[in-house]
Amino acid sequence: MDKKLVIVYAILISLFTIAYPFMKSSESYLTEVNQDNELDQKIKCGPIPDRNLQDMKKKQNKANIIFTMDDGWDTQYTKAFPILKEKGMKGSIAVIPTKVGTSGYMSLSQLNTLYSSGWDLMNHTYSHHHLAHLSKQKQKKELSQGRTWLNNHCYKRASDIAVYPYGSYNQDTLNILQEEHYRSARTVIDGIQSNNLKKYEVPTINLLPSTNVEWVKEQIDMAIQTKQTIVFTNHRFDKEADAAQMNFDPAKFKEIVNYVDSKKDQLNILTYSEWLDIKGIH
């Protein structure tokens, strides 16, 4: 070997030997800082308040209506939130952390307003990939990062409730939810939730441009008669249908909300986590 290279290697090894203890010290320091930040975050957020169990028991033998909305689109805040608020109702948003504050999506401030108003913020994974297309390890990471983001922003109430992006999941997904102690997960499969609950495969009624409001009212009446549960799902709120056919006319949404309000003595209008509390799913 060339003598000059030998000298260079010797110098590099000497420098690494000198620097290594400081590198380890720095790594240890950063670990301690991260742990301190996590502890500070836990202290800042505080515990989730317990709900009144007596009130929960009074609601057990009624039909349930749950308004969920996927992705965190800004129109969910600007158009749907005022409609529900006017009737004293709350919803549940499936949040994509990587979309928060970007064009067309809600800001962190808007999410804070919803959460402090009693709305649920659920785990729609960190970056909204088709879970069934991912390995089990990558699925677990997507779900875990989504839950961690929610918890770190003090949105703990529903961070362990998953909503599958694109409705995509497989047996690996179900196993992860069980292993990681998630409370429930909602699909995009159309239907009314019967009393025989599969907690990781909860169906929904998707409110789309083609959805007939009179048909929706019939489904609400059916749920009341059978004491079952309807989980509604919305995406964007706009009058005109878009190419994806995932938006819903705010006027039609208001008509549905008004109908639910007219039946409020016969049913419960809940967030997703409140529904699970009534069901005793923890």
Give structural notes:
The protein is 47% helix and 16% strand. The protein is built from nine helices and ten strands. Strands 1, 2, 3, 4, 5, 6, 7 and 10 form an eight-stranded parallel β-sheet that branches. Helix 6 links the parallel strand 4 and strand 5 (184-190). It is globular. Residues 3-13 and 15-43 have low confidence and may be disordered.
- What is the CA-atom radius of gyration, in angstroms? 24 Å
Alpha-carbon distance between the two ends = 67 Å
Stretches with pLDDT under 50, minimum 5 residues: 3-13, 15-43
Specify the CATH homologous superfamily of the largest domain: Glycoside hydrolase/deacetylase
**CATH level-3 fold name of the largest domain:** TIM Barrel
In DSSP terms, counting alpha (H) and pi (I) runs of 4 or more, how many helices? 9
Mean pLDDT: 87
What characterizes the major β-sheet?
8 strands, parallel
- Secondary-structure element order, N to C: HHEHEHEHEHEEHEEEHEH
- CATH architecture assignment of the largest domain: Alpha-Beta Barrel
Determine the fraction of residues in helical runs and give it as a percent range. 40-55%
